[in-house]
Design brief:
This protein is mainly alpha-helical. The protein has five helices and no strands. It has a single domain, classed as Four Helix Bundle (Hemerythrin (Met), subunit A) (Up-down Bundle). The longest helix is centred in the first third of the chain and has 72 residues. It is rod-shaped. The termini are far apart.
Length: 170
Amino acid sequence: MNWAQVLDDFIKIGLPSLCTASAALLIAKFTRSHDFEKERRRRKQDFLEQIAEPLDDLTMRMESVLSSEETVRSVDDPLKLRASELFLKELDLLDEAELKFGRIETKLALAGFPECLEAFRAHRHCTTKLQGAVLARSQGREDTVAGACKAWWQTESEFRHKIVSAFRAL
């Protein structure tokens, strides 16, 4: 066997084998990369779906607090004590919901959702203001609940919108 035959065999057999192996390696690399990207997107979508539960719970509890506080202000003295007890219980449940809701902040930052994080912080701030306004009104101080409630609903709606937008962008 001489050099010409070796070169001929390499060109006929070896070179196509090298090309096939290189192509297979590139395809495997890109497929793996694509699978990692799909998994990352799926995890982010799952996370965004999980945010909805604490947000829904907070919204429900805030509505209950507002309703209970309104009941305390509207009932006569014989029922006022019972209504006040229910109002305090609703405040405790709101605190629990707010605690669960607050745990979202770090996760939003880690997951890389800056728009959602900004909307979350605005909503949390409005939640604190509304809570303070409700407590102040229930103690007979300045009544700023209407304005705080309007701002709270706006930030709640904006936060939901940002979550949906981030989900769709994935």
